[in-house]
Design brief:
By secondary structure, the protein is an alpha/beta fold. The chain folds into two domains: 3-209 and 332-357, Rossmann fold (3-Layer(aba) Sandwich), CATH 3.40.50.300; 215-325, HprK N-terminal domain-like (Udp-n-acetylmuramoylalanyl-d-glutamate--2,6- Diaminopimelate Ligase, Chain: A, domain 1, 3-Layer(aba) Sandwich), CATH 3.40.1390. It has 15 helices and 14 strands. β9 (171-179), α8 and β10 (202-207) form a beta-alpha-beta unit. The longest helix is centred in the first third of the chain and has 16 residues, at 92-107. It is globular.
């Protein structure tokens, strides 16, 4: 029988895709051929001439998967899709049929299939294709990824577990992600107690990996919908520190660090010159120029000559920083460093043998 694992989550930004990357890499060592499918996608890219979920593009690129992209991403909620469903221009039955057919196609050549959900277990309900329902129609062994914590984590697990039970799906286990080292012992102690009352196994406890949360200039260009002014070759450099440069130049120079994103007004040409002088000695910094007036031609010439990754944003520095602070970076197929870091961070904390040995319960 094919090994079919559905990975859902308690909500957004808990690290479901990172867990899937680590799990997929370990499944590849256990099975001859592993397939990947994201039955219901939201954010999409164009691949092989069709719109597919961005995570399908990521897995297909990184793991060199040769399966048909359409089978890996059978349903994508593109712009206006929800309205078409409500207007009955698209039927839930046709979407369900497409998902089942795609899964059947992958099953013909794959020994194991990893299925990634979308958001929490209720996402997709408007089309009668919630993550919980998809897990049922694909008859998959279902595990849940939750963010490290105790009370709120158990509450979120309870809500999502209830959605699964409503659809007749029994939750097989839980993976806890992004657990702070200082809290790991306490989190493990009390989560195991909380999960015991539901008879749920803890399938992995993954430490928080700061690098996975560090954006690149490519991410910031996407966030602000602006092209890079310079440093195109360094658009996937990660910034582990950021600084809002608004003070005296002498004081600011003491705050410069490697792998630092510096946000400053485009009007401060003297500061940009100081940044470029520092950049010559210690590379891998990024620059976001702000304000209502774009950078002068002379400044553009300097940053282009230095090949420093630079972006211009037409808003005050403070509001630029505020937007950056609330931004959550996602995986990009081109950012191989982040993908490899995720696999390394996750894989060592998942016991695939235990996951595969969990019996698949008969669905009601």
């Amino acid at each position: 029988m094919k090994e079919t694992i559905y990975v859902g989550a308690t909500g957004q930004n808990v690290g479901k895709t990172a867990v899937c990357l680590g799990l997929f890499s370990k499944l590849k060592k256990k099975f001859a051929k592993v397939g990947f499918i994201k039955p219901v996608g939201q954010k999409h890219v164009m691949l092989e001439g069709i719109a597919v979920d961005k995570d399908v593009a990521l897995f297909k690129s990184h793991f060199h998967l040769d399966e048909n992209a359409a089978d890996m991403s059978p349903v994508v909620f593109t712009q206006g899709f929800t309205k078409k469903i409500l207007d009955k221009k698209i039927t839930s039955a046709s979407l369900e049929k497409a998902i089942i057919k795609a899964h059947e196609e992958l099953s013909k050549t794959c020994d194991a299939i990893l299925i990634e959900g979308t958001g929490h277990m209720g996402v997709g309900s408007i089309a009668n294709l919630s993550c919980a329902r998809v897990a049922k129609i694909l008859n998959a062994k279902t595990i849940l990824v939750a963010k490290g914590g105790i009370g709120s984590t158990l509450d979120e697990i309870a809500v999502n577990k209830a959605l699964l039970e409503f659809e007749g799906v029994e939750l097989s286990g839980v993976v806890i992600n992004k657990v702070l080292d200082s809290k790991k012992r306490e989190v493990l102690k009390y989560l195991k107690k909380g999960l015991k009352k539901w008879d749920l196994p803890l399938l992995g406890c993954v430490p928080y990996a700061p690098f996975l949360a560090t954006p690149t200039m490519h991410d910031y260009a996407f966030l602000f919908k602006e092209p890079l002014l310079a440093g195109e070759s360094k658009r996937f450099c990660h910034f582990t520190d950021r600084m809002l440069a608004v003070g005296p130049i002498g004081w600011l120079q003491k705050q410069f660090k490697k792998n630092q994103l510096i946000i400053t007004s485009a009007a401060r040409e003297e500061l940009v010159c100081a940044i470029l002088a520092y950049y010559e000695k210690k590379p891998d910094i990024g620059l976001i120029l702000t304000g209502s007036m774009p950078p002068a031609a002379s400044m553009l010439e300097l940053v282009r000559k230095a090949d420093i990754p630079t972006l211009y944003v037409n808003m005050p520095s403070y509001f630029t920083l505020e937007k950056i602070t609330s931004f959550v970076t996602k995986f990009q197929p081109e950012d191989s460093a982040k993908t490899l870091a995720a696999i390394k961070a996750i894989a060592g904390h998942l016991d695939v043998s235990t996951i595969c040995q969990i019996p698949k319960k008969k669905l009601s």
